[in-house]
Amino acid sequence: MSEAPAISQEERDELRRNGILLTSLEEIYNWGRSNSVWPLQFGLACCAIEMIAATCSRFDIARFGAEVFRPSPRQADLLIVSGTVTKKMAPQVVRIWNQMGEPKYCIAMGACAISGGPFKQGYNVLKGIDRFIPVDIYIPGCPPRPEALLNGLIQLQEKIKSQHLKGPDAPRHLRDDVDCIYPVPEFGEHDLVPPKNPNLYEPPTLVRPDKP
Questions:
Q1: Are 111 and 117 in contact (CB under 8 A)?
Q2: Backbone φ, ψ for residue 185 (5° rounding)
Q3: Could you give the CA distance from residue 148 to residue 155 in angstroms, rounded to a whole number?
Q4: At what angle do helices 47-55 and 146-161 cross, to 10 degrees?
Q5: What are the C-alpha distances in Å from 105 to residues 33, 37, 70, 121?
Q6: Residues 6+ positions from 167 with CB-CB distance below 8 Å
Q7: Per-residue pLDDT of the chain (212 residues; tens, 9 = 90+)
Q8: Would 139 disulfide with which of 35, 50, 131, 152, CB 3.0-4.6 Å?
Q9: Which domain, by its residues, includes 65?
Q10: Residue 176 counted as domain residue
Q11: Is residue 56 assigned to a domain?
Q12: Quick check: is 3 in a domain?
């Protein structure tokens, strides 16, 4: 029995203009999830002010289905790390992430959440939250404007829509070979222990040219 021939996006668009919709269970499932993202009511530093501004009427994040900021990690599926992550706060961020139910996503908002920002050389600042939890979208800036957060949300929605329900590209909650719980770092004598999650982050290798 031969498989049905694949239909191109142009053909689907032409059918949609004539009132005929073609879809699949996977597309409906991802469409519903991507348009009902519930962020956690959580902020760290100045980027949180821009996040709050994105919810106000001028920018209106509710247009994208993400207006329901939940006060409990048990009810949220998007963690927006908005601001400087100190090493004192890093264990709490990881603990909050572990309390969120799958499927869940993370946006690193601003230079501090991505790499430490202007405080990168400080002994007390984590040089990127992606050392401990997986980040789906990076939004550069110091701080990024609310429009940048909305663009990051749109990119996250596109990522959710492109996910598959089966196979190696399936999200974490549909795979048995991926752990959804991440180790919470503890305070050591000089630094966090461990200083990073080796399953998520490895420092880049610098290739230096040989001296002549």
A1: yes
A2: -70, 155
A3: 10
A4: 70
A5: 11, 9, 14, 28
A6: none
A7: 445 567 787 887 888 888 887 778 888 889 899 999 999 999 999 999 999 999 999 999 999 989 889 999 999 999 999 999 999 999 999 999 999 988 999 999 999 999 999 998 888 999 999 999 999 999 999 999 999 999 999 999 999 999 888 887 788 888 877 777 899 999 988 899 999 998 888 888 888 887 66
A8: 152
A9: 9-164
A10: no
A11: yes
A12: no
The pair of structure tokens assigned to 117 is: 């920002």
Q: Residue 175: inside a domain, yes or no?
A: no
175/143 Cα distance (integer angstroms)? 35
Q: Tell me the whole-structure pTM to 2 decimals.
A: 0.85
**What CATH number is associated with residue 154?**
3.40.50.12280
- 68: Cβ–Cβ under 8 A, 6 or more apart, which residues? 38, 39
3-state secondary structure at position 85: coil
Q: Dig out the tokens for 103 from the structure.
A: 């499927």
**d(C-alpha 105, C-alpha 97), whole Å:** 9
Q: How long is the chain?
A: 212
C-alpha separations of 37 from 30, 142, 151, 168 in Å: 11, 25, 14, 23
Q: Provide the token pair at 74.
A: 């048990």
